[in-house]
Amino acid sequence: MPDGPQDKLKELSDEAMVRIRSLQEKPDPRLIPKAVLQVGDDQKNILVVDTSRSRMYVYENQGGELKYQTDYYISQGRYGANKAKEGDQRTPIGVYYVNNRIPGPKLPDFYGTGALPLSYPNEWDKRNGRSGYGIWLHGTPSDNFSRPPLSSDGCVVLANPDLQSLYSTAEVGKTVVVISQHVQFVDKGEWNKQREAASAMLEQWQQSLENADGDKTLAYYSPEFRSAQGENLSTWYGRQQKSMNGARFTSVKLRDVSLFRYPGGPEDMIVSTFTQESAVGKSKNAIRKRQYWVKEGSQWKIIYEGNA
Fold first, then answer.
1. Structural domains present in the chain
2. Which parts of the sequence belong to the L,D-TPase catalytic domain (predicted)?
3. What is the rounded CA–CA span in Å between residue 91 and residue 84?
4. Residue 138 among the catalytic residues
5. Catalytic residue chosen out of the listed positions 53, 90, 138, 226
6. Which run of H or E residues covers position 31?
């Protein structure tokens, strides 16, 4: 908390510098965030936060292509990014989903006109022992238009008008928030190339399931695989096979597929989320899944798979 006029002056100066820098470094709206490889048909918007710029970029899904809409000034954790444990007052780095909508009247004035809680800690956070909870996108108290760049307990804070704009379109379980320390942008040609490669990776896995080729399917999984329950690959895969009771898929289709290059993880890691529609004879089943893929040598391997 500021101790006096000098502290307040420094906070205003820090915010002004960040806002000026964001104007000077404003990305070309024709470029696309490198982390966003593919958005699902059911996803209207993608929110991309750059903690180094204290900025959020908003993109709209227009027929599978990202279109820049606007960007907002944001405040982050008092000690910056890379949250590791509860109470460290840092903002997490990763790919998160909006998992609730809380209107302003149900909140103390501190949170402004509303809040959008995020899915921190996600599967990758838990695997890496990151702790904490209550990471939200939220507004500011009624007597503040904005807050200094480094001032929250880990939440991403926006001015109330900006928060309200996000709140009006955010969808629980669908709106993705990618938080990165430094967002990289690529042109459409490079984006298409990377998207097609990631999509092909997932399609090959899906085809191995549909073809009931157990050895080929198993080859897509990393020796370092761990399930949500902490099972190793042998235990987890054996359980999957046992649940099939000797039956084989006659059809496997994937829909509403999203693919994101994961910020802050291994250099080459992709998180995929999709609905898997499977048929075994006349019996059909649909399940929402999430996978984390890592590149081991020249091969992409699944290091985590579970329900989303």
1. 5-185 (2.40.440.10), 188-307 (3.10.450.50)
2. 45-179
3. 9
4. yes
5. 138
6. none
- From residue 257, alpha-carbon distances to 235, 272, 294 in Å are 27, 7, 18
pLDDT tens per residue across span 166-184: 999 999 999 999 999 999 9
pLDDT tens sequence across 54-92: 999 999 999 999 999 999 999 999 999 999 999 999 999
Between the alpha carbon of residue 87 and those of residues 52, 107, 151, 153, 155, the distances in Å are: 21, 21, 14, 7, 12
Q: Which helix (H) or strand (E) holds 246?
A: none
- Neighbour tally for 222: CB within 10 Å: 18
Q: In 3D, which of 213, 209, 197 has the Cα closest to residue 272? A: 197
Token pair for 86: 């509860």
Interatomic CA distance for residues 206 and 252, integer angstroms: 7
- Burial of residue 102 (CB within 10 Å: 0-12, 13-18, 19+) is middle
From 18, 95, 118, 155, the catalytic residue: 155
Nearest-angstrom CA–CA distance, 285 and 279: 6
Are 288 and 275 spatial neighbours (Cβ–Cβ below 8 Å)?
yes
For residues 38 and 182, what is the distance between their CA atoms, to the nearest angstrom?
19
Beta strands in 181-268 (DSSP E): 185-186, 251-261
